[in-house]
Amino acid sequence: MLRIDIITLFPEMLSGFLDQSMMKRACNRGAVNFQFINPRAFTTDVHHTTDDRPFGGGPGMVMKPEPLFAAVESVKTPESRVIYLSPQGNVFRQTHAERLAGETHLVFLCGHYEGVDERVIEALVDEEISIGDYVLTNGVLAAGVVIDATVRLLPGVLGGEGAAEQDSFSSGILDHPHYTRPETFRGQSVPPVLLSGNHAAIAAWRKEQALERTRLRRPDLL
Ligand code: 9D3
Predict the structure, then answer these.
(1) CB 3.0–4.6 Å: which of 9, 27, 43, 110 could bond 139 by disulfide?
(2) What is the per-residue pLDDT across 85-136, written as a single tens digit (0 to 9) for each?
(3) pTM for the full predicted model
(4) Catalytic residue chosen out of the listed positions 87, 126, 127, 213
(5) Is residue 25 part of a domain?
(6) Contacts of 12 (CB under 8 A, 6+ apart)
(7) Structural domain contains residue 67
């Protein structure tokens, strides 16, 4: 059982997603358990303040350390891996998902506003992850991406065992094209080799297609 705690000011951004499809099935099968922690619940002032102006000036607001320390420390154990989602992190890859799927407790700290007070990262964060070079409004969807890629790798989550090993990126190249019925649709026909029943020829065709696509679209993977 992988325990996942998500620390965010906006749990509603992710709760619907976690209640659906593969994530729900993973929960029902006992592979994973999700819990949201809202730092606002750990504020002690009358206005429940979670952010403040940056020392040194400049635009935007910074998440205050006190509610974040209290939120993280309410769930953190020696077995926890605390991950801060931020544009300054290492860019997320399949190898990260494979490593995270082997942990027992993941704590995702989602940044809001300009980010969190650096002392939170220094004292509590084990790893900082970005999901790519584009600007999001906060870290919640990034946490959802990392969670999705990780949870589907857990034993018993993907119906057929071994399906995860057939993924592009696990194999290191892109997938081949896929076709289903009908054989001809609006004048476009399925490549005849796929109808031949020759399994060796089909495997060879798929491998060649996958390699050619990777060469054209993602030469960086080769
Ligand atoms: C340059 C000043 N800020 C732009 C208004 C920087 C900035 C702060 C906070 C940019 C984005 C964010 C919010 N993004 C995330 O928290 C985030 C993120 C992302 O934006 N892109 C890719 N991965 C991630 S993980 C978390």
Answers:
(1) 110
(2) 999 999 999 999 999 999 999 999 999 999 999 999 999 999 999 999 999 9
(3) 0.95
(4) 87
(5) yes
(6) none
(7) yes
